[in-house]
Amino acid sequence: MKKILLVALTLLMLSPAAWAKSLRVVVAYPYIASIVQQIGKDRLKVDFLARGDYNPHTIVPKPSFIAKVRNADLLIINGAQLEIGWIPPLLKQANNPAVNPGGEGFLELSRYIELIDVPTSVSRSQGDVHPDGNPHFYLDPQNIPPAASAIADRLVKLDPRNASYYRANCGEFLAKFNGKLKEWNSRLQKCRGMEVIEYHKTFDYLLHRYNMHLVGTVEPLPGIPPTSKHINKLESIISTVKVKCILHDVCHPDDASRHLSQKHGIRLVVLPHDVGAVEEARDIFMLFDVIVRRLAE
Amino acid sequence: MKKCLFSCIIILCLANILFAQETEPTEKKPEPKKAISEGSPFSQVKFNPDLALIVDMSAVYRSLSDDVLEKTRIRGFDHSGGDDHGHNHVAANANIGFNLNYAELALMATVDPYFELAGIFHASPSGFEVEEAYFKTTSLPGGFGLKAGKFLSGFGKLNGQHAHQWDFTDRPLPYYVIFGDEGLNEPGAQLNWVAPADFFLTIGAEALQGTNETSFGTRKFHDMLNLQRVGGSKGPNAYTAFIKTSFDADDLTVVLGASGAMGVARRYHDLNDIGLEAMTVETLGCLGEGIRARTWVAGAELVMKYFIDSNRYVSFQGEGLYRIQQGRYFHTALFPVNGSGIVATPKLSYHARHWGAYGQVLVKPFLQWRFGARFDAAGTDMFRVAGARKKNEPALLYRASGMVDYHPSEFSLFRLQYNYDRSRFNRYNHIKPGHEVVLQANISIGAHGAHPF
Which residues neighbour A223 within 8 Å (Cβ) at sequence distance 6 or greater? Predict the structure, then answer.
């Protein structure tokens, strides 16, 4: 009996599974986790920090996040200063040099995307501005493939043993995603030229890509809740332009958007801004499925 | 046919003109790829540290006038709080009317691949003070971090936070009576370690200079007759250790922590420090008094925060502190304490036990508003000089507070707070209950350091 145990133990020790510690990846938002999951599958461990249905700007840096960052080999963030309010204190307290910005264990996806709305001058009188440009780039599905490639490249660099595995999975993911992209593109054709209002400048990349025109936001300035004066201003815009829908997310109070929608008979479209923001958006594919379905309804 | 030729010629001519216009020779000058942005080619503007300015001001109403308040003290903690006895630090919200509490200047940047450096300076009516100035490692392996310089100790929850991070405008009683008006903020070094666990667990230890006025002290002293002398400290005079852990249960986050501090208290106040004005019935005839005592402080903290959704939460935060001091009591008096001599300086045994605690509840029901209630208390558990128990030290002093604050943005905050104060006594040992209303504004510009949980 003892012998068998010993042999089993030695075999266990020798097996690559026992030796090879899988890569621990921690990501800021669920959408990134979904991409990493498709590329790494069972050969890495991925954990996301922020809840998908919470406002991505104002995530509270809970101590449990510190524990996750402490143990990470790779930290992937959205970037463009979307996490400025909550990732820095985590890095400061986690004592993990592997994921310090600038190193190989830190990946900022916004660096691989051409950002829009880069302000020419920056002042906080304009509200919660992002000097690098609008950080919500990932809500344009066409920005997902470059992000996925950047993730695959970094995984290969950190874990070369599984290089071909990651590359193959990434290729598979891109093929599937590009297939879906054609479907989404054709379904969103009918939205081209549509005039819309949104709560926060969350879906600008999507609007930009599909030629929808943003005529106003419900919040007067980024991060500042709506005021009655601003709503009056929006109403005067609504009276001159045929606004087709008001886009709202799940993490801001919807009373002002709902009021405008009911008063002027404009369709209120609640869109998920991340995986997990609404129940049906369980992965990156379903996220865009839901967005496209609700927009093109 | 002629017509056709004619029109062809016209078209050709027109095309020619257009073409000529398009290819008008333009002079090509070599131009720099980027506009001249910064004056010097050796400009280091990009390396400037993150810079922030935080200004805190208040308008205060009190039922006790400034004069009356000045002559009161928190009984049992005679030498606590920096606002009496001639110490030069001015507390926040000190005067009825308008107060500029402080203008905080914070600079922070990465030094090199190994360190980051932070400097936080307070300009206030007390003068210009180095609130914190420390470097911290960024690349130690194994979850370790080392910090050295002058910094707010990691003891407890509230002590490590800057005043503008607090949920109420003032320091609650336990911290005020045990660590004074500036908290445990000392030159020293801190080592902390984050455990490689699935849940948050951190352990830290500090060696501090231990100059804290209310619990420690490094300076030598002697009485006015130079009969009793106490030597100064010969090294770090205070040590702390803390352990903190946290877990999430769905939308509830719980943080638990325990802290300890130990060191030697040395303090002496002669008549000049105490002042005739502040003399109480007990200190009548006292020409000077002091202690040299081993000091132990234990602290426990509990934070619970329940997130209703992205914008709303309910939270509870509470801490308890307990301090034991054992050593010698020095007393020079016109009237002897133990019946020997007219001017006596007996060296007596000293044993004091003090406690303090606070609990606060906060509700954030809408986007920019928060409401809170706090109860803070402190008292003397035991006070023995020369083995004799002093019975008249109050066991329970307390305050009750309510507050509402409004955040137009992350960078501005307005807070209205009401305190009912039953912690202060006049010189005849009568309690002087007070009402206090503070309207506080806290405004910041520049790099806004995100706050830890």
Answer: A57, A127, A128, A200, B409, B410
Place of tokens 């524990």: A67
What is the pLDDT confidence band of residue B85, given thresholds at 50, 70 and 90? very low
**Interface list for A 178-197 with B (CB within 8 A):** none
Give contacts of B305 with chain A, Cβ < 8 Å. Answer: 60
The Cα–Cα gap between B229 and B273 comes to 18
The per-residue pLDDT for B224 is 73
Please tell me which residue, B397 or B46, carries the higher pLDDT value. Answer: B397
From A254, which residue of chain B is nearest by alpha-carbon distance? B367
pLDDT over 50 (residue B84): no
Residues in B touching A254 (Cβ below 8 Å): none
pLDDT score of A167: 97
Say if the Cβ atoms of B410 and A89 lie within 8 Å: no
pLDDT of residue A31: 98
> Mind telling me how many Å the CA of B140 is from chain A's nearest CA?
7
- Spell out which residues of chain A touch residue B245, defining contact as CB-CB under 8 Å: 63
pTM for this model (two decimals): 0.88
Percent of chain B's residues with pLDDT above 90:
62
> How far, in Å, CA of B172 to CA of B170, rounded?
6
Distance separating alpha carbons of residues A178 and B130, to the nearest angstrom: 57
For the segment A154-158, the average pLDDT, to the nearest whole number, is 97
Give me the interface pTM, i.e. the ipTM. Answer: 0.89
In single-letter form, the type of residue at position B337 comes to V
**Average of per-residue pLDDT values in chain A:** 92
CB interface of A with B, residues 23-62, below 8 Å: 51, 53-55, 58, 60-62
CA distance A110 to chain B (A): 20
